[in-house]
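Lab meeting tomorrow. Look over both lines:
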Amino acid sequence: MNIGIVFGCFIPMHKGHESLIKRALEENDKLILAVCGYQTDRGRDFIDFETRFRLVKEMFANDKDRVIVVKIDDKKLGLDGTFTHENWVLWGDELFGNANISPDSAHFNWYTGEAPYVDKLGEIYPDHTFNLVDRQIIKTSGTEIRSNPKAHADEINRIFLNYLESTGKLK
């Protein structure tokens, strides 16, 4: 069995994230989709952590057999943003534990746009495959979206966009 892994803060979920998820679903039998962060992280004033997790679960409510949505609360793990090797080990243990899957039970394909993640996670999971996606193909940036969500509304996932509209945060 092939299992894809996509992770992020999703502040908000945008076209770049969606392209990673789509590719992972096309290339694998299942997908672990990890929502990362903590309640008082940089998204707290835009879309807080618990809401992001709820919205991602809502996105895949009809695909529970293929998509396992997990939450990784960095603060609960005691992670401080420095992500040493030991921190990545803790983080990986949390990801696989929350998904209730052993990291050696299948062939895992990771998808990310961040080269440092590939380097760090590759040391921990040398038998896994890492797919570094060129972020210039889809140039969407969560930081840009948060700075002017209305101007970037067409780049935001529909469920996240509905949430922003309903809360008055699409300005």
Notes: DSSP finds seven helices and five strands in the chain. The domain at 2-167 is CATH 3.40.50.620 (Rossmann fold).
